[in-house]
Each structure stands twice: as C-alpha cells, then as structure tokens.
Amino acid sequence: HPTIGVLALQGDVREHLAALRSLGADPVSVRRPGELAACDGLVVPGGESTTMAKLARIFELLEPLREAVAGGLPVFGTCAGMIMLADRIEDGAPGQETIGGLHITVRRNAFGRQVDSFEEDLDVDGLADPVRAVFIRAPWVESVGDDVEVLARVGSGPAVGRIVAVRQGPLMATSFHPEVGSDDRVHGMFVDLVRSVR
Ligand code: GLN
User: pTM here?
Assistant: First the structure.
C-alpha cells in the first residue's frame, strides 16, 4: 500500500484520513519534515489557507513541502489545499505564501456571498458519473498554464464554466471537498496517481 500523508497543521484532516483508509492506502498525519519524507503522496486539506501557510512556515514545513513538489511528489490539494498549491493567488491576504508548483492562479473566496457555500452534481474528467461536489467558501481557478489539465468546470448558476478541478502531472487540486460524504472516487483518482508514479 502507498503511504499517503495528510498535512495536519489545520483543516479537515480526519475526513481525508478516513477516505484514504477506505481506499486501502496507508494514511498518516504529517506535521514534521521527517513525516513528509516517508510519504509516497500527500493531501493538503481544506481549512483556512492563510492560517495553514503561517503554520507551515512556523513548523518549518514550507521549504520541505516546496522541495517535495519540485521533486515530483504527488500532492492533492482540496479547497484551501488548492490555494496552497497554486503559484498565484487573487484576493489573498497581504503577503500570503503558498507551497506553489501548480501553474494556476486561484481566486480566493471566489463564489461570493450569494453562493458562499453550495453543492452541485459535477462532471469530473475520468469519472463515469457526476460527483456531488460540496463548495465551502471555495476558490476557483482563474487561469491555468499550458501544462495544466482542466478536470471539471461548474455546470450551472452564476459561476458556470469556472474551473474547479485541475491536474498537472503528479499534482491534483479541487475547489470542492471530496472528503465529505461517502463518495471516494476523487480520492481514488489520486491514489491511482500515486500508484502510477511509484
Ligand atoms: N476560504 C478558505 C481559504 O481561503 C478556504 C475554504 C475551505 O477550505 N473550505 O483558505
């Protein structure tokens, strides 16, 4: 089984550990550089990206995380985790840092007050049936680099067409929270990615 870490500084760590466990991966919480080094893949959870970035700096994980991404570690970021992987942020806090490596610009809290939080049946590339996607003060992807594959766009409503799932080599990110609920297929895509890289 691949060892898949969940960055456990802040956010909904437990739900990701459970989803990974149900898929037969060996999930571990990551708070130290040594724990990161033992991982075949890493999930960066949802939560609050400014707090997560500050804690990553304090725990001396930001540089090791950047090195891991540069070294090809598969990483899956959800919501705040997507922001953490992004090269650029619109509407970020002043001086907000990210791990980076994913060639996208995200807009933080993009959906605005009317649709602050919502759910949608979302078509995701590579999955036969739609995913019930839960968005909670989510970012969207404002723009992508040439090497970034768009996996999903919002299908209806005021944000129709906005990019909410992407992949770039071993990096994956979703605006929504695939760890809530009992549908493990998006995590399954990531576990397959980890297996294929290993
Ligand atoms: N709005 C949060 C942020 O900026 C992300 C919300 C989430 O992860 N559910 O980090």
Answer: 0.97
Show Cβ contacts of residue 37 under 8 Å, excluding neighbours closer than 6 positions.
Answer: 64
Bridge-partner residues for 140, per DSSP? 107
Q: Are 176 and 124 in contact (CB under 8 A)?
A: no
Compute, in angstroms, the gap from residue 54 CA to the centroid of ligand 1: 14
Q: Which two tokens stand for residue 118?
A: 């919502």
Instruction: Report the catalytic residues.
Output: 79, 177, 179
Atom of ligand 1 nearest to the CA of 47: 8
- Angle CA 44–182–1, to nearest 5: 60
> Could you tell me the residue ranges of all domains in the chain?
3-197
- Class for the domain spanning 3-197: alpha beta
Residue type, 14: R
Ligand 1 pocket, mutate which of 79, 82, 97 (most atoms under 8 A from CB): 79
Instruction: List pLDDT tens digits, range 106-120.
Output: 999 999 876 789 999
ipTM confidence score: 0.95
